[in-house]
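Extended Data, record Protein EFR3 homolog A
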Amino acid sequence: MFGCQEDYRASQVPTAHSLRISLFSSSVCGCCGPLRPRYKRLVDNIFPEDPKDGLSKSDMEKLTFYAVSAPEKLDRIGAYLAERLISHAGLTGLNVVIAMEALDQLLMACHSQSIKPFVESFLHMVAKLLESGEPDLQVLGTNSFVKFANIEEATPSYHRRYDFFVSQFSAMCHSTHQDPETRTRIRVAGIKGLQGVVRKTVNDELQAIIWEPQHMDKLIPSMLFNMQESEDLDRTPSVAGQDGEENPAALAESCFRELLGRAAYGNMNNAVRPVLVHLDNHQLWDPNEFAVSCFRIIMYSIQAQHSHHVIQQVLNHLDTNNKNTPRVRAGIVQVLLETVAIAAKGSVGPTVLEVFNTLLKHLRMSVDFELGEDSRRNSSTSASSGRGKESEERIVQNAIIQTIGFFGGNLPDYQRAEVMMFVMGKVPVYGTPCHTLDTVTSGFKSKSMAAALPPPFLDPLFSISLMEDSELRQLVFEILHNIIDRHDNRAKLRGIRIIPNVAALKIKREKISKQDVAFMKKHGQQLYRHIYLGCKEEDNVHKNFELLFTTLAILTIELANEEVVIDLIRLSIALQDMVLANEENMPMLIRCGIMALVAAYLNFLSQMIANPPFCQLVSKVIELRSMEAAFLLPEHIFRDKCPLPESLDQEDRLLYFQTADMAECLAGPGYNAERLSIPYVPQVTGTHGAFHRH
């Protein structure tokens, strides 16, 4: 009885001492009922008689004050709340909501060292909610976990693990609930939960285990699965109006970006590998829009210095799939192009030649596959299926070439020259170097031709120019244009024609340097020879003659001093004489095409060197041809159904350019016109004499 009176008196006198007695008394006397700890009574009081009334705020304030004042009791409070929560979890969700709200408030209010045991109880309760299978309880548990994840703890936890939460949240991300709205809620909760795990663990050295494969293999695919579902979700009426916080695709992408942005040097491989596996498992390389989108996100989210890690991963994956279908390989290469395009703006790393080596290896393999199909097709009657296979291999080859070209195009000139020689040395396969080099050399600017066209590159390139394939010869000259045309004059010279006023083209040029003079002395004859031989190929078409004309014009602009001008005129006369002699019985169309080429070039050259007598001489021949032999001019011979003569009259000297007349025009200071009387004869240089053009 005394104890009860003492309690009564204390309750009537509101002193600090009595308040402490009231709060910290752990039990009541036996006459007042069973022994009951104070913290349990405080916890019980926050639950109202009618759960619909919600959490009792005044009693919650008392519980919070008690917990802050006596942090050593936190673990007991947490354990008892967990007991209450578990007892209600199978009954009514309202009491569960009250219990979780109380936990959240205690968690936010208490930051002492004693919070560690309380957190374990809290996480145990969250786990129970996630395991319940009830969407409302799962969402409730996730929201509490996210609040916890945003709390910065004073000291790290040495023993806490989040394996269960990674697994459970990942499973929620793949929810297949029948109701679309509920399914979306569960997936959004799962993504938010994973985002909470990432934020809680990724910067904690003690939780580096989160980057290990067993966790990344769940985290990454869960995000990608929801990103991949975006189109279907956007078409669902209940989801179309959602903002980014409630849209699984947008939220998953945000979490994916955040995770990649936090990835350190040693974690890149574990972060990228699951992406590649997911794309494989879901057959997302063909079509590859989603794959390209994923790697675009990756490249823009990671730190720039890690870009080469991603590129290396994609290259390795390409090696792994070297026997897959052409469209899958092409899809991987196109993704590689995307990564290279973004990496080229920053740091690509030391793997430049490794990238080229792998790409060229796959280019050669693709060509081998195609050639193998050709041989099988020739021995089989299923020609149509062979053509389909061939076109698919071409898709792979074009994707590789485009990637090499883009990568090479973003390298400095010295490295690009190294790559060009690397390409010529690594891919001695019919035609493939030309397509590759055309893209690598696009936009190439080199002050010295000797540096841009070293013999290890020039010799094999010219070897290809002797191939019997007219398209390959076109590519060789386009490559030369890319390298030689340092002032971007090609567009002004497009189309073989008689240009009435070359000055109107506003050709850009500079005085030829001593280095370029030396280059022409050493390699000029090699250039002339391949132009000469390229003119008389019987399968030449209009484009071949256009490119030959452009080649002669660019040589004149970029590399021609007085000596080179004389050599180019000698070359032109030799071409004209070859047509008139016709010792090789060339088709009349080719003979007339060569004559038109010579006329177009000499018209251009005479105006470029600004020699009035020479200009008048050339104009006179062209004017006479337009009246009597229009088939010897480019505007006529390259038209469809241009009538061809049965023969060319060698005796009608006025229709042709005469050496003596041109020598007379060029007589005087500057030009050694006497050299024009020496007929041009193609000189075999280097290894070309033994080259077999087939």
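Summary. The first helix runs from residue 2 to 12.
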